[in-house]
């Protein structure tokens, strides 16, 4: 009887750990939704400043204007010289980020009810966002030689969403 009770306790503890892990995974889309909203706010702010031509106040770092007015601040910096499409070239990267965070938000919200397919698409999307953010940080540090605090905040946000998506894969495997 003592042996059976011990086995039951072990099984009960194991079930509690699994339930806690499942509960944590269920909360990750909510956390991702928060980060996506934060990213929307950050990139929306930068997009607004781009189109109003107002300078962006930089209180922590001094390179915001250098980064935000560089050739790399719009899609034009990424297009080959042979592409002559001025409307596309004038689109700010912050606007592309705004679209990216909006898409991440939609997938995170759709995942709140446990839809694994939309969560997988969310994970793929934020993986691309985090990779592109890494490239943009490289451009800021090596090519432009300055950093923008809002751009770094956006990169941190996209990497945070990537970590959330990655963490859900590891917790789900246990």
Give a verbal description of the structure.
The protein is an all-alpha fold. It contains six helices and no strands. The model is unreliable at 14-21 (pLDDT under 50).
- Uncertain parts: 14-21
Shape: elongated
Task: Please give the radius of gyration in angstroms.
Answer: 21 Å
Oligomer: single chain
Helix coverage percent: over 70%
Question: What percent strand?
Answer: under 5%
Number of strands: 0
Can you tag this structure with a few keywords?
elongated; 174 residues; mainly alpha
Q: Secondary structure elements and their pairing?
A:
Blueprint: H1 2-52, H2 64-68, H3 86-89, H4 93-111, H5 116-144, H6 149-173
Helix pairs in contact: 1-4, 1-6, 4-5, 5-6
Give a short synopsis of this structure.
Helix content is 76%, strand content 0%. With 174 residues, it is mainly α.
């Amino acid at each position: 009887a003592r042996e059976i009770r011990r086995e039951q306790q072990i099984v009960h503890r194991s079930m509690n750990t699994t339930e806690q892990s499942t509960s944590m995974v269920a909360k990750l889309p909510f956390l991702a939704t928060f980060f996506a909203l934060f990213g929307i706010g950050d990139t929306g702010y930068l997009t607004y400043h781009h189109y109003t031509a107002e300078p962006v106040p930089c209180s922590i770092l001094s390179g915001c204007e250098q980064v935000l007015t560089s050739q790399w601040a719009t899609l034009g910096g990424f297009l080959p010289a042979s592409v002559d499409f001025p409307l596309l070239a004038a689109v700010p990267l912050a606007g592309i980020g705004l679209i990216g965070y909006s898409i991440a938000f939609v997938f995170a919200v759709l995942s709140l009810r446990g839809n694994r397919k939309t969560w997988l698409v969310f994970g793929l999307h934020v993986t691309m966002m985090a990779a592109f953010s890494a490239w943009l940080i490289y451009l800021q540090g090596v090519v432009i030689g300055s950093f923008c605090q809002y751009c770094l905040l956006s990169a941190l946000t996209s990497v945070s969403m990537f970590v959330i998506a990655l963490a859900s894969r590891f917790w789900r495997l246990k």
